[in-house]
Design brief:
mainly alpha, Endonuclease Iii, domain 2, Endonuclease III, domain 1, 2 domains, 10 helices, elongated
Length: 210
């Protein structure tokens, strides 16, 4: 842990007062479903699709009763909807049969569910259970590499390096602080370097001050 990493998270926490997911959900199960749906899809699109679904279907039993084909029809505006419908139906069935319809508060159990990777499991543990986990998405991967705070060639490397440098005080919020900074400020094509509060610690060579 370095003084720059402490300052980066201190600065981000000062401007991002309530760091949390942009996904809309009603319980831990719908959070899990939304995170599965969000793969290669924007949170806005997921929210637009699920806003009319969760008022009617918000438990694993509901999705088991629907079946894969009906789930496909409900989410067909989302990319890769067939694969995601299959995963949602399968994980719902497992939750009903193996976990009494409860989303497990355990990384290994979550990771074993269909359609659930490291990122999804860590998001659910962080957002749903308040655990100090870090889920590396494209935004976090980009910010971690640009700033040099936790460089890595792949998400797993970045995740492990972040755990080494994030101050314990900010560990629970680190995921959302980095994600929201990447989504709204340190954007992929047009980073808003002029308004970046951690610019003095950034090692990105192609800064944009327009």
């Amino acid at each position: 842990m370095t003084s720059s990493s402490i300052n980066i998270f201190r600065k981000l926490s000062q401007i991002i007062k309530n760091p949390k997911s942009d996904l809309k959900y009603t319980n831990k199960f719908t959070l899990l479903v939304s995170v599965v749906l969000s793969a290669q899809c924007t949170d806005v699109n997921v929210n637009n699709v699920t806003k009319d679904i969760y008022s009617k279907y918000n438990k694993p039993e509901d999705f088991v009763k629907l079946g894969q084909k009906k789930i496909e029809k409900l989410i067909n505006r989302i990319g890769l909807f067939r694969n995601k419908a299959k995963s949602i139906y399968s994980l719902s069935k497992i939750l009903v049969e193996k976990y009494k319809s409860k989303v497990p508060n355990d990384f290994t159990k979550l990771f074993s569910l269909p359609g659930v990777g490291r990122k999804t499991a860590n998001v659910v543990l962080n957002e749903g259970f308040g655990k100090p986990t870090i889920a590396v998405d494209t935004h976090i991967f980009r910010v971690s590499n640009r700033t040099g705070i936790a460089p890595g060639k792949n998400p797993d490397q970045v995740e492990q390096n972040l755990y080494k440098v994030v101050p314990k005080k900010y560990l629970k919020d680190a995921h959302h602080l980095l994600l929201l900074h990447g989504r709204y400020t340190c954007k992929a094509r047009t980073p808003n370097c002029k308004k970046c509060v951690i610019i003095k610690y950034c090692k990105f060579k192609e800064k944009v001050f327009v």
